[in-house]
């Protein structure tokens, strides 16, 4: 869960209007008065907005005593939705004349993160009072909820596009669910195209991972109805070093040019980490060329009968030939597999291979290696 710190929250919480001091005296209130302060109002207007829009949240305090009341209100919040941020407390000071009121309005909306598609935002406020006899007392805690509705384009809105669970281990699958809604007054038909790709911390495709083709689903919805489609996706086994899957969604409507709606969903893949292997990479380089010797050591308690090593070059190295292994390269990703005479590595033993290549701008050595799908030290 991402957390927005105080400095960051200021970019999301946008003060629109702050009215300090008293307004009309003897204002009527039905709220209970605690330590001299009553909360007359804490509500969003409007209480529901489309994604991408904002709403004003207004707090009205009433001084129900015969002396000036001072204090502060701490506003904090939580978005409902995967990969959505927490809003840390932001303090606002107030001073209210006897029997006067204080009004504070802030604007809240979609946080603007591509990975967060919130369904709601709940904002809470602690009302603190500083009186001689009650210094720093919390007089009240109130909450208000803003509901988000999906933006409707050409009669179609994306109500949900998310994985459940949001994190899986390599080799396990998660269910990606799409819920579309017809927010028009006529039957709407079309299709949704889901384009999944493996992701990792490096650039380009993760080493050892296959390319996934787009998947399309047709839909037909009566006015006000919804359409649900699901797809199981997960971390590939073997030498794939992906740490996630990102799926982009494009929704089209029959007879309408262009894309009616888009969305993105992300799945986190946890890779096994073990100290069962160690890889030593020893380069020898010169301007425009290099050789490298790679040694795989089995630190585990069981013998290896075969091995496949995967890694990615940080630079623009291109392998031209290799020895003692079958080596292939795709972009920056490299896969090396044992030959028929050097696949066995006993506990404590090792096998080595090497290759020669060229480079233009960078020959930085790789640092992350996996053997048979397990990250090595």
Commentary on this structure:
By secondary structure, the chain is an all-beta fold. It folds into 3 domains: 3-149, Immunoglobulin-like (Sandwich), CATH 2.60.40.10; 156-270, Immunoglobulins (Immunoglobulin-like, Sandwich), CATH 2.60.40; 277-375, Immunoglobulin-like (Sandwich), CATH 2.60.40.290. The protein has one helix spanning 6-12, and strands at residues 3-4, 14-19, 37-45, 48-50, 54-63, 69-80, 86-96, 101-109, 120-130, 137-149, 156-164, 167-169, 173-182, 188-199, 215-221, 226-234, 244-253, 261-270, 277-286, 289-298, 308-312, 318-323, 326-330, 333-337, 350-358, 369-371, 374-375. The radius of gyration is 30 Å and the shape is elongated. The model is unreliable at 1-30 (pLDDT under 50).
Summarize the structure.
With 377 residues, this protein is an all-beta fold. The chain is built from one helix and 27 strands.
Task: List the SSEs and their pairings.
Layout: E1 3-4, H1 6-12, E2 14-19, E3 37-45, E4 48-50, E5 54-63, E6 69-80, E7 86-96, E8 101-109, E9 120-130, E10 137-149, E11 156-164, E12 167-169, E13 173-182, E14 188-199, E15 215-221, E16 226-234, E17 244-253, E18 261-270, E19 277-286, E20 289-298, E21 308-312, E22 318-323, E23 326-330, E24 333-337, E25 350-358, E26 369-371, E27 374-375
Parallel strand pairs: 1-7, 4-10, 12-18
Antiparallel strand pairs: 2-8, 3-5, 5-8, 6-7, 6-9, 9-10, 11-13, 13-16, 14-15, 14-17, 17-18, 19-20, 20-25, 21-24, 21-26, 22-25, 23-24, 26-27
